Amino acid sequence: SQTIHQWPATLVQPVGSPLSLECTVEGTSNPNLYWYRQAAGRGLQLLFYSVGIGQISSEVPQNLSASRPQDRQFILSSKKLLLSDSGFYLCAWSPLGAYEQYFGPGTRLTVT
Amino acid sequence: EDQVTQSPEALRLQEGESSSLNCSYTVSGLRGLFWYRQDPGKGPEFLFTLYSAGEEKEKERLKATLTKKESFLHITAPKPEDSATYLCAVQIYSGNTPLVFGKGTRLSVIA
């Protein structure tokens, strides 16, 4: 069966510090991968998605970036965090040729 | 612009009091509609996919239905453990586009 992991689960970072969130998927090959941010009262905001290694599409211009160094690994990064980057970050995957997405447990990021 | 609107924003039910959640959409071509359940502090859990008008899917006390403009999530005789936020999302026809999510309905079931 397929499993999706995210870490860390919780993170508190000062403004201006770097960020690296990691997501890995097990039990599947060539998944589509997604990063979302969920802020209170604003729903799920798609940040990036990837249909293959090294292929990243950005949905929202901001100080975040994403990379996919391996088939089942997706990384969300920032060089300098802003207060507005606080939120609940979710990674998701979908099987090749399908559209339903399966979400990870999420990372709660607080920027102070 | 493609849009997904969920109503109500919040719903409070007594245990056993059946009701429905609504997801209306305005998209250029629907490929699929998806329902998720999200518990506080956790990632959304996939429930159903609906592909065409008239289709229905059931799981325990939940039944999802689809028309050409909206979907309903019917909850029959809910229990407190059904309390969660329910999210609706749509997939549209144009290429490999990601899902468009609604903001969700926060359901509370009181014993």
Structural features, described:
The complex is a heterodimer of chains A (112) and B (111). Chain A has 112 residues and is mainly beta. Chain A is built from no helices and eleven strands. The radius of gyration of chain A is 13 Å and the shape is globular. The N and C termini of chain A lie far apart (38 Å). In chain A, strands 2, 4, 5, 6, 9, 10 and 11 form a seven-stranded mixed β-sheet that branches. In chain A, strands 1-3-8-7 form a four-stranded antiparallel β-sheet, with no helix packed on it. In chain B, the strands form two sheets. In chain B, strands 2, 4, 5, 9, 10 and 11 form a six-stranded mixed β-sheet that branches. Chain B has a five-stranded antiparallel β-sheet with strand order 1-3-8-7-6, with no helix packed on it. Classes of the chains: A mainly beta (112), B mainly beta (111). Chain A binds chain B through residues 32, 34, 41-44, 46, 49, 51, 59, 88, 90, 92, 99-106, 108, and chain B through 31-32, 34, 36, 41-46, 49, 87, 89, 91, 96, 98-99, 101-104.
SSE blueprint:
The complex is a heterodimer of chains A (112) and B (111).
Chain A: E1 3-7, E2 10-13, E3 19-26, E4 32-39, E5 43-52, E6 55-58, E7 64-70, E8 73-78, E9 87-94, E10 102-103, E11 107-111
Chain B: E1 3-7, E2 10-14, E3 19-26, E4 30-38, E5 45-50, E6 56-59, E7 62-66, E8 70-75, E9 84-92, E10 100-101, E11 105-110
Parallel strand pairs in B: 2-11
Antiparallel strand pairs in B: 1-3, 3-8, 4-5, 4-9, 6-7, 7-8, 9-10, 9-11
Oligomer class: heterodimer
- Counted by DSSP, the helix tally of chain A is 0
Largest sheet of chain A: 7 strands, mixed
Question: Which pair of chains has the greatest number of interface residues, and how are they split between the two chains?
Answer: A-B, 22 and 21 residues
Poorly predicted runs of 5 or more residues of chain A = none
- Overall geometry of chain B: globular
Beta-strand percentage of chain A? Answer: over 45%
Distance between the termini of chain A: 38 Å
Into which percent range does the helicity of residues of chain B fall?
A: under 10%
**Count of DSSP E strands of chain B?**
11
By secondary-structure content and strand pairing, the structural class of chain A works out as mainly beta
Low-confidence stretches of chain B: none
What characterizes the major β-sheet of chain B?
Answer: 6 strands, mixed
Determine the structural class of chain B based on helices, strands and strand pairing: mainly beta
Helix % of chain A is under 10%
Total count of strands of chain A: 11
Global mean pLDDT of chain B: 93
User: Secondary-structure element order of chain A, as H and E?
Assistant: EEEEEEEEEEE
In round numbers, the mean pLDDT of chain A is: 92
The N- and C-terminal alpha carbons of chain B lie at a distance of 41 Å
